[in-house]
Amino acid sequence: MSASRFTGRVALVTGAGSGLGRAVALAFGAEGAKVVVAGRTSGPLEETVALIEAAGGTAAAVTADVASAESVRELVRATVQRFGGLDVAVNNAGIFRGGHSAADFPLEDWQALLDTNVTGVLHALQAEVAHMRAHGGGAIVNVSSNLGPHVRVPGVFGYQVSKAAVSALTRAAALDHIADGVRINAVSPGASESSMSLLPGETEAEREVRMKQDSPLGRISSAAEIAAAVLYLASDAAGSVVGADLVIDGGVSA
Prior knowledge:
By secondary structure, this protein is of the alpha/beta class. It is 43% helix and 15% strand. Strands 3-2-1-4-5-6-7 form a 7-stranded parallel beta sheet, with helices on both faces.
């Protein structure tokens, strides 16, 4: 693996204030990209920027809410203004709502999931493609989940539906925009090094024990493993990968 696959390129990562988004942003910074980290809260974003800069990388933080189309358009404008372009985008921002069956799912939770996890991805993709197709193309990676597109469990109805939609959105958009020079793909992580994979009240140690039973691999995926998959899809090495949904879940959905 080259340590400078993204030298001279600009990468935008949403939901980059913590967890997988932060890991992805750090990975891009380590491989030479100028990274814009985006999210709704400035404090965690500034922490991500500080980590990238401490490792010798270049980054900037921009607050944005993907549920607002105008906010995301401004995010892309700010990215281009700050670093001169946009070559790679990772649409990672997402929320989780669970604990209810389909018949009892609160409509306010349903709407929140759609606004952020589905429409938010569309807002980001539209703003990103608008720039990329006018400036020589680019690569977009949407973060979906193994829950929904690839495996279903009871009690996670709305989240699973929203992530299944992200997978379908990714594949349909990939066909629409490959002729524009924009490659669009998705990753679908399973339980990973993220607070979102903890059950209510569960500790990381308890999750480790649970995953020995629940995963064929016997453990969660590390944030670095998810980030490596994202960077592959965004890299020139994946030049013929279009509309893929790369599952990273230790065999749970196999």
